[in-house]
C-alpha cells in the first residue's frame, strides 16, 4: 500500500477515520457516554457529549455526573496526544501511527470542577502542552453549550 503524505498541518482522511473508529466505537466507555470527535488538528482536538440519561448523576437529575466529566476529559487528553504523535510521525503510514494508540496510557489526571455540568450538550477540548519521548502533558476543558467553562483538567500520558 502506498502512503501519500497529507499537506503540512493536516491529517490524511484514513488517519482521521481510523482514529475516530478507535475512539468512538472501540473504546467502550466513550461509546456509552456518546463522546464524538468534532475536530482534530495537531494542536487541538474537540469533542462533544449530548445529554443522555446514563450521564446523569444519581442525586442530581439534570447534571452530568462528575465521573463522566473526568472520563471525557481524560479521553480527550489521550486523543490530543494521539493527534500530536500523529503529526510528529507524518513520515509513517496512517496504520502505523494508529498502532501507537495501543501504547498510550494515563499516568496522572487532575480535574477541577468549576460549575455544575447542567445542559443538553457539552464541548470538550484538549491540547498537548509538551510531547516528550516518554511522557506527554495535556490541558483539557469541559464547556457548556453556551461556551461557559464548567471544568478544566490536566493530564500526563505515557507514550512509549
Automatic annotation (TrEMBL):
<dbReference type="Pfam" id="PF03061">
    <property type="entry name" value="4HBT"/>
</dbReference>
<dbReference type="InterPro" id="IPR029069">
    <property type="entry name" value="HotDog_dom_sf"/>
</dbReference>
<protein>
    <recommendedName>
        <fullName>Medium/long-chain acyl-CoA thioesterase YigI</fullName>
        <ecNumber>3.1.2.20</ecNumber>
    </recommendedName>
</protein>
<dbReference type="GO" id="GO:0047617">
    <property type="term" value="F:fatty acyl-CoA hydrolase activity"/>
</dbReference>
<dbReference type="InterPro" id="IPR003736">
    <property type="entry name" value="PAAI_dom"/>
</dbReference>
<comment type="similarity">
    <text>Belongs to the YigI thioesterase family.</text>
</comment>
<keyword id="KW-0378">Hydrolase</keyword>
<dbReference type="InterPro" id="IPR006683">
    <property type="entry name" value="Thioestr_dom"/>
</dbReference>
<feature type="domain" description="Thioesterase">
    <location>
        <begin position="62"/>
        <end position="149"/>
    </location>
</feature>
